[in-house]
């Protein structure tokens, strides 16, 4: 009892990893989280862009044979001509496209049909290589109806070309 | 299953036992960083997709031409802007308004025609002049109206029809311009500081029969000999030289030349209380001279009043509603009034009842710091030379790395779409700023004009972005040309985008003004296809001399529908 034995130390031995405790797993996790947040904040962002707008349609001079394919078949747009002006009626495909009630007008000169209010076959010019329909034999009432239709077309659809007969000087110009 | 959950639980608690003081510090810093992100982020000044497609293209294009492009405020199918939409007092509130001419602009300045509903002002515009270091002099609008009436009556009595104005920017310049509209003569605006020979040539070329010039700046003998159609002269004399007698005519000129002195005319007729006539006749146009530098060849362009007012109206509405010129603005034209862009913007400022500061230190290459040294402008018009000079001097003065870092931080803010403001960070580390005006930070809008075809220094989008940081103001870069009053195109003031690898030395010019529409015609070298629009720039509209002008420069419309040189 009188022996001076060393008092066993009750203090815990110093933890050998205490000095490097900055790299505990939780610290590494939070440090990487911080790094990711800083990276996302400082990363330069590309300016927002829109895809390029669809190119404008080129105004064309059509003859009846060249206008004929534009009737909605083979994924072609739907055009029709009224008094020498060609309208793009693809947005009215339900009416003028294939299978629609007015499908006869697609790709053709529809002036007489609109004036007379009929979409029979005999309203369209048979001979595509011949001269255009002059509409001379229509009376005032029918011309009035035609003008009304033309105004509605002007408001709804885009004019994408003009129609000239085969053999006219303007038609030859476009061929050149 | 239970074993998996226990393993997971053990792993998480093992992870969390390593929590120590460093972990707490990291957690607080993450929370603080997130808090700062939330505090600092704000919406961009405008939606970025609005900048991604700016002008409106037509859906159909003629062969060998590009589509027609217009400003978004006057889309296809609607008429272009043709004037100021002036509504004299007494007309119903929502009527369309007339186009107006310079007389209506002056009537608005005097308060005879009130501002639009909702705009507040003191009732008139304010005009001040600055001469050197003397300080700012305020002029009463009634006195200026009287000077217009006196000068106009004098010239009308002498039978002058084409009056050449050879003055630096001054009050007399504006008086003579407005007098031309009221009294029926055509002002010919000759750029100041020409060599005498060139001045005589220009007087002959434009067919002037009267001249208003600064006393002592023009050798009367030479000029009257060279320009034989000249009949009357009015000298404007600065205050320090008024003791001399300027009304005497040197021998050899004879009685054909009538000489008068401006301040003497005003003095004599002050008591008559002259008022402006109100004739319904259409006032004649204004002649502008487009010249690369003094002494060189000049192109003469005559604009009718309607073209000028179309340009003024379009420039007013080219700014978004929140940033338009209003009665609380101080407007400084630091470019000469003989440039139609600067003149139209000055007329726009007068039309909006802003305070216009006229000073003679104004021209293509003037130093903006010098021009604004005794005033604090909020809006300024400068030429590309002035902007380039401002940019290079401020860039050279950025030396320290801290300033460069602050500049970099503010450039990032601009790229994110916001104009950098003064926060506590910038008070600690400020980037280089150009000192403009007596009170720093008041400048809010800077109009920079590029004169097409006259070899003006190019400003790239990097330069413009740097200028936004140096001046802490929004910048509008405009393309101006001889045959178009005002400008052809002007950038959106919210467009802070920079190009990493620009294809041309000039930045893009934004959208056309609402009074013009532009298209590109194919040339042998450049053509328009489905992928690109390139060609010679053609401008049509209500502010174009002759209705349509071929500018003779190759341009392209980029994917975001803005105009740029090819």
TrEMBL record, chain A:
Where are the membrane-spanning stretches? 20-42
Is Iron given among the entry's keywords? yes
Q: Does the keyword Nucleus apply?
A: no
Domain of life of the source: Eukaryota
Cross-referenced Gene3D superfamilies, in alphabetical order? Cytochrome b5-like heme/steroid binding domain
What are the residue boundaries of the Cytochrome b5 heme-binding domain, all occurrences included? 62-164
- Enumerate the SUPFAM superfamilies for this protein: Cytochrome b5-like heme/steroid binding domain
Q: Where in the cell is it found?
A: Endoplasmic reticulum
Give UniProt keywords alphabetically: Endoplasmic reticulum, Heme, Iron, Membrane, Metal-binding, Transmembrane, Transmembrane helix
One molecular function GO term is:
metal ion binding
Single GO cellular component term: membrane
Query: What family is this?
Result: Belongs to the cytochrome b5 family. MAPR subfamily.
Kindly provide the name given to this protein in its UniProt entry. Cytochrome b5
Taxonomy of the source species: Eukaryota, Fungi, Dikarya, Ascomycota, Pezizomycotina
From TrEMBL, chain B:
- The UniProt entry's coiled-coil ranges are none
- A molecular-function term among this protein's GO annotations: long-chain fatty acid-CoA ligase activity
Q: Which InterPro entries match?
A: ANL_N_sf
Source organism, top-level taxon:
Eukaryota
Q: Where are the transmembrane segments?
A: 20-39, 163-185
- Say yes or no: keyword Transmembrane helix present: yes
**A cellular-component GO term for this protein:** membrane
Q: What SUPFAM superfamilies would the database entry show?
A: Acetyl-CoA synthetase-like
Name the keywords, alphabetized.
Membrane, Transmembrane, Transmembrane helix
Query: What's the protein called, per UniProt?
Result: AMP-dependent synthetase/ligase domain-containing protein
């Amino acid at each position: 009892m009188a022996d001076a034995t060393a008092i066993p130390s009750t203090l815990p031995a110093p933890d050998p990893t205490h000095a490097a405790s900055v790299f505990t797993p939780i610290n590494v996790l939070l440090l990487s989280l911080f790094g990711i947040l800083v990276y996302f904040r400082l990363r330069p962002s590309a300016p927002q862009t829109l895809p390029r707008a669809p190119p404008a349609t080129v105004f064309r001079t059509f003859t009846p044979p060249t206008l004929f394919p534009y009737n909605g078949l083979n994924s072609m747009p739907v055009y029709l001509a009224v008094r020498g002006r060609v309208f793009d009626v693809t947005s009215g495909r339900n009416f003028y496209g294939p299978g629609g009630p007015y499908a006869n007008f697609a790709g053709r000169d529809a002036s007489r049909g609109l004036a007379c209010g009929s979409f029979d076959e005999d309203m369209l010019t048979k001979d595509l290589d011949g001269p255009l329909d002059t509409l001379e034999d229509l009376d005032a009432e029918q011309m009035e109806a035609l003008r009304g239709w033309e105004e509605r077309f002007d408001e709804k659809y885009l004019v994408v070309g003009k129609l000239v007969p085969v053999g006219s000087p303007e038609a030859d110009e476009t061929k050149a | 299953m239970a074993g998996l959950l226990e393993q997971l639980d053990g792993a998480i608690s093992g992870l969390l036992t390593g929590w120590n003081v460093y972990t707490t510090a990291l957690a607080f810093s993450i929370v603080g960083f997130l808090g700062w992100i939330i505090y600092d982020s704000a919406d961009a000044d405008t939606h970025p997709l609005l900048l991604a497609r700016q002008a409106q293209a037509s859906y159909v294009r003629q062969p060998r031409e590009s589509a027609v492009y217009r400003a978004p405020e006057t889309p296809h199918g609607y008429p272009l802007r043709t004037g100021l939409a002036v509504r004299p007092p007494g007309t119903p509130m929502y009527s369309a308004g007339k186009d107006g001419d310079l007389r209506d602009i002056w009537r608005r300045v005097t308060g005879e025609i009130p501002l639009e509903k909702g705009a507040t002002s003191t009732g008139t515009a304010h005009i001040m002049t600055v001469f050197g270091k003397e300080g700012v002099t305020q002029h009463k609008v009634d006195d200026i109206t009287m000077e217009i009436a006196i000068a106009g009556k004098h010239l009308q009595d002498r039978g002058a029809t084409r009056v050449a104005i050879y003055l630096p920017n001054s009050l007399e310049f504006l008086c003579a311009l407005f007098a031309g509209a009221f009294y029926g003569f055509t002002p010919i605006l000759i750029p100041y500081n020409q060599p005498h020979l060139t001045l005589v040539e220009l007087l002959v070329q434009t067919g002037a029969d009267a001249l208003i010039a600064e006393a002592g700046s023009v050798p009367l003998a030479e000029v009257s000999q060279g320009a034989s159609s000249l009949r009357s002269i009015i000298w404007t004399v600065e205050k320090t030289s008024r003791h001399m007698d300027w009304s005497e005519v040197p021998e050899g000129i004879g009685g054909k030349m009538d000489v008068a002195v401006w301040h003497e005319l005003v003095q004599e007729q002050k008591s008559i209380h002259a008022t402006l006539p109100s004739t319904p006749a259409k006032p004649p146009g204004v002649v502008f001279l487009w010249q690369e530098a003094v002494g060189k060849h000049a192109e003469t362009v005559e604009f009718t009043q309607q073209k000028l007012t179309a340009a003024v109206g379009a420039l007013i509405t080219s700014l978004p509603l929140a940033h338009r010129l209003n009665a609380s603005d101080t407007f400084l034209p630091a470019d000469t009034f003989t440039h139609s862009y600067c003149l139209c913007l000055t007329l726009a400022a007068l039309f909006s009842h802003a305070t216009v500061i006229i000073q003679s230190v104004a021209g293509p290459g003037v130093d903006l710091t010098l021009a604004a040294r005794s005033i604090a402008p909020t809006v300024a018009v400068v030429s590309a030379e002035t902007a380039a000079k401002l940019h290079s001097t401020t860039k050279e003065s950025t030396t320290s790395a801290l300033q460069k870092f602050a500049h970099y931080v503010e450039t990032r803010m601009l790229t994110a779409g916001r104009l950098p403001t003064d926060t506590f960070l910038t008070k600690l580390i400020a980037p280089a700023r150009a000192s403009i005006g007596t009170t720093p930070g008041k400048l809010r809008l800077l109009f920079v004009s590029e004169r097409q075809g006259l070899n003006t220094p190019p400003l790239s989008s990097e330069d413009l972005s740097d200028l936004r940081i140096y001046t802490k103001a929004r910048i509008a870069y405009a393309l101006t040309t001889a045959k178009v009053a005002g400008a052809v195109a002007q950038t959106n003031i919210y467009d802070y985008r920079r190009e990493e690898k620009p294809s041309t030395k000039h930045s893009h010019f934004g959208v056309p003004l609402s009074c013009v529409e532009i298209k590109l015609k194919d040339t042998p070298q450049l053509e328009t296809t489905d992928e690109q629009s390139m060609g010679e720039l053609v401008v049509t509209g209500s502010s174009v001399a002759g209705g349509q002008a071929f500018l003779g420069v190759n341009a392209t419309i980029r994917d975001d529908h803005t105009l740029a040189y090819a």
